[in-house]
Design a protein that fits this description.
Elements lengths: L19 E9 L10 E8 L8 H9 L13 H12 L11 E5 L4 E7 L3 H20 L5 H13 L6 H12 L4 E4 L4 E4 L6 E4 L2 E3 L5 H6 L1 H10 L3
Antiparallel strand pairs: 1-2, 2-4, 3-4, 5-6, 6-7, 7-8
């Protein structure tokens, strides 16, 4: 049986009043098939339940908040969407998350990869932009500034949100040093193998938790061993 996708209405997470659909969100902690960096990857599709506006109208609306986007050239809705997610993801804090990629999957579905740091924040950024685009299509007011303020709070409460930790992460990124958070150990790791260092804020060691850490933080030790099945 041949499936003619171009003639079907398409909806997974979208409401019947939505013009776009976002689904299959997946976070990668490092380089992946779609982009050479940690990223949030998701599928983007037109639902055809509700007609989208002309692309130029979305560009105009988005450019009211991000004027420099008006100077860019967009060939499709998904390119504008990905670029907008990238811009919102900087959270008006100058975050270094500026990379994105679009990979066509079929005539009606595209895979979008946007550079990410904190999974929850990145997911909420995507849903924020989705709501924004739907509001534009319906001619509704959307207070992006308030939404970004909420997103800033989510990011600041994350393991990456402290000013010292983020400054180290950004510097590592600019010097092409891979970084990731070790959730079971509660440590940030910089680089791999013999060159790796792990630590909290500005306290580092080439190994994981020191014996002195476990001596002074016995509750952390219990939780750590429990997560490992002991």
């Amino acid at each position: 049986m041949v499936l003619n996708e171009t003639s079907q209405t398409f909806r997974v997470n979208a409401r019947k009043t939505d013009a776009f659909d976002i689904y299959n969100l997946r976070h990668y902690d490092g380089p992946n098939f779609y982009i050479n960096t940690a990223a949030l990857v998701f599928d983007f599709a037109l639902t055809r339940y509700n007609e989208s506006l002309a692309l130029a109208e979305y560009v105009s609306a988005v450019s009211d908040y991000y004027p420099h986007l008006k100077d860019e050239q967009y060939e499709s809705y998904v390119q504008l969407f990905a670029q907008t997610v990238s811009e919102v993801g900087k959270l008006d804090m100058g975050l270094h998350l500026d990379r994105w990629n679009v990979t066509p999957q079929s005539n009606s579905i595209d895979k979008v990869a946007v550079q990410a740091l904190h999974q929850r924040t990145s997911r909420e950024v995507v849903y924020c932009v989705w709501d924004w685009f739907e509001a534009i299509a319906k001619g509704q007011t959307f207070n992006l500034s308030d939404q970004i303020e909420v997103l800033q709070g989510v990011f600041r409460q994350s393991v990456y949100g402290g000013p010292t930790v983020y400054a180290l992460l950004r510097t590592a990124y600019e010097r092409d040093i891979p970084t990731f958070y070790l959730w079971d150990e509660g440590l940030m790791q910089y680089s791999y193998g013999r060159k790796q260092v792990r630590g909290i804020a500005t306290t580092f060691d080439c190994d994981s938790h020191l014996d002195s850490d476990f001596t002074t933080n016995k509750e952390d030790c219990k939780r750590f061993l429990s997560r490992l099945g002991f």
